[in-house]
Amino acid sequence: MKSKIVNYVRQLLILNSALLTLFASCSIEKQIAKSAKADVLDAKALQTAHVGISIFDPATNKYLYNYQGDKYFVPASNTKIPTCYAAMKYLGDSLVGLRYGYSTSFANDNVIVIQPTGDPTFLHEDFKAQPAFDFLKNNKPAISWGFLDTIWRDEKWGSGWTWNDYEATYMAERSSMPIFGNVVNIKLKKAADRFLDSSLRRPRYNVFKTQSRFFDSLINSDLSIEANSFYFNGETVASENLYGRFDRQLDRNEFSIKESANIFSQVNIPFVANGSETAKWIIADSLNISFRHLQQSRTKNQFNAGFRQGVRVDDWHIIHSQPTDSLLKPMMHRSDNFFAEQSLLMVSNEKLGVMNDAKIIDTILKTDFKDLPQKPRWVDGSGLSRYNLFTPQDFVAILNKMKNEFGMERIKVIFPTGGEGTISSYYKTESGFIFGKTGTLSGVVAFSGFLYTKKGKLLIFSTLVNNHQASATDVRKAMEKFLVGVRNRY
After folding, report:
1. pLDDT higher than threshold 60 for residue 152
2. Position 23 in a domain
3. N or C: which end of the chain has fewer CB within 10 A?
4. What CATH number corresponds to the domain at position 32?
5. How confident is the model at residue 489, as a pLDDT?
6. What are φ and ψ of residue 252, in 5° steps?
7. Same domain, 326 and 474
């Protein structure tokens, strides 16, 4: 009898504990729903907007709150989250900066064939170490160079991009051989630093300076004339007082100066990459070498064109450029569109052998993301396209996969926390406790990531707002108030 009473009491205690846990859970969910309504849904900045919010507890594998979590939204730069996942999984510890091989059948053994890999860090100002360029520079004595680009199977801009923004730095063209981030930096030279260009028939001064002689000659070719001035709109203008701005032709690297209310100092403008052609010209001009363009023949490893005999490469070698996370960190911190696009193309190259975002996206959706709650429409690597459609639950699922497969310590390095990157003005008191990715387009504000509560719980969240008519700042502040409340209460 005593044993039965003890067991009965034990069962009552277990039942009581379970009921308390259930009531506490229900209470938490109700409190989150209440604060979501007060801080977000009823906020003046969001009353006419479409809003989706998902808060997920990975420890219990349960959603604490779902408001239109299964509905589709334009995610803007939250699209970089699946791109980041793919790069973390498939690009290894270090980026493949260049592939090269030596000819085994051409009469001269010094022929070196190189193949681009889409690495956006090549001669990029953010990366001081340049192993791929050092390889090219150190092998200048080679008699012949072959350039093989059979991997590029895409367009310079993504599907649904606003092409008329082509002069904006966030619209730098995609390519198989990026160089300088596919952006030319034009600076006004000081008079003391200018020099006569003796290669021209009549003496001229280089008034403007770029990263390479190739663009120096393009930009200064029609400018003129004296050490401290040039001919502009029918009159001679002192270059230090130039009220002007640079324009570039849509489909070619032709630059011109137009009148402006501001004195010119410097500007960054994306250039026309022409696949890998512009990069080849810049490298060849910088190193005083020449490339012969090769094409795949019907025979495996055999390449024709540019040589009297075919060139055969049996063994390809790899030059690693940068640690992969040194690319992903600025991609996520400053929401770098070019790094995101090239990262996805590099994944495509490593996994499929060609660079094509549609093919690699289709592959990842059928493999890694086959179990997402809702199948997204994913069309580019950066989120520039309004064709992208994801649900908050999709982002929660992807973020949970990242946590499980790569660990939070790696994620904390790649994702910005409060007071950093694109959230430098937000979540400052939550630095070290919130890690997330923003997204912004006209009428779109998104923020998804990880949140550690005051009680030490790790939550995964996704907040997507579309079609708002307020300022993005007001929308972000409303969402910040809500998420900080979640952290403080739970």
Report:
1. yes
2. no
3. N
4. 3.40.710.10
5. 84
6. -155, 160
7. yes
Task: Find out whether 183 and 172 touch, Cβ atoms under 8 Å.
Answer: yes
Q: Which domain holds residue 393?
A: 28-90+322-489
When pLDDT is cut at 50, 70 and 90, the band that residue 203 belongs to is very low
Residue 483 lies inside a defined structural domain of this protein: yes
Residues 84 and 191 in one domain: no
Give yes or no: residues 261 and 333 share one domain: no
Global confidence as pTM: 0.89
Q: What is the pLDDT of residues 20-46, one digit of tens each?
A: 444 445 688 899 999 999 999 999 999
Q: Which amino acid is at 295?
A: Q
For residue 11, being part of any structural domain is answered with no
Average pLDDT over residues 234-240: 57
Residues 256 and 346 in one domain: no
pLDDT digits (tens, 9 = 90+) for 94-115: 999 999 998 754 455 578 899 9
